[in-house]
Amino acid sequence: MLKNNLGVFLLVLCCLYLFPTSSSAENFILNNSFEETLGSKNPGAFGDYDGIRYWLRWLQQNSERSDLAAHSGKYSFKAWANGGIYQNFAAPIEKGKTYQIDCYMYTLSKDRLKGGSYGLVKLEWLNTNGAVIEDLTVKSPRFDSNMSPDTWHLISVQGSAPENAANGRIALEFISSPGGAGAVFWDDAEVKIPEGGATQLTVSKEDIKTEEASKEEASKEEASKEETPEEKEDETIDWEW
Ligand SMILES: [Ca+2]
Questions:
Q1: pTM to 2 decimals?
Q2: What separation in Å is there between the alpha carbon of 159 and the centre of ligand 1?
Q3: What is the torsion angle, in degrees rounded to the nearest 10, for the CA atoms of residue 184, residue 185, residue 190 and residue 196?
Q4: What is the CATH classification number for the domain harbouring 120?
Q5: Domain annotation covers residue 97
Q6: pLDDT grade, residue 215 (50/70/90)?
Q7: Is 204 left (phi over 0), alpha (psi -120 to 50) or beta?
Q8: Tally of domains within the chain
């Protein structure tokens, strides 16, 4: 009897280990379904110029909050020419952690993408000065004229937070092409640290150069031993646990 109870106890322990209760990762994006506005109109402008709460647009004459398509709720974000929308997320950033963007994208058959115009999703990292760390931006594949219309497509992007990141940023961008046409819709944007995601430390080229410069400085007193590499790609270092 005692043996059986012990067996059940061990089985429960195994289940708890294999199926942890906290399986839903936190989404760092606010108003991720574009349902909330600031209630402030931009006078004299055409289209829905409501300020979209928690998000910032650039070249805003080329985009709007739209009720022509929605993956959930009533609205989505729509763009039809150069520009887009972004939101910074989650200080403090967990350095070295993998972050994943999931976002649904759509194009209408009656206003389908044509030519070279496309939409995309970007994961960016900002340093303590609020500047984008250029060489670490991760871009999704192009959402272009090859994508089937009238269907929501789930687009995902992953990247690991670098050592010098103060914030992350999700950006939804439209790129126009001469002779291109059509519009893209985005809805239900999420940024999460995926369960079981690898922990890596990614170092930008800028940091590698700075580090190398200081190493070079330190070794000036000694006779020069090695040549400094002229160009170095980003490095990804696996953390040991
Ligand atoms: Ca929505």
A1: 0.73
A2: 25
A3: -50
A4: 2.60.120.260
A5: yes
A6: low
A7: beta
A8: 1
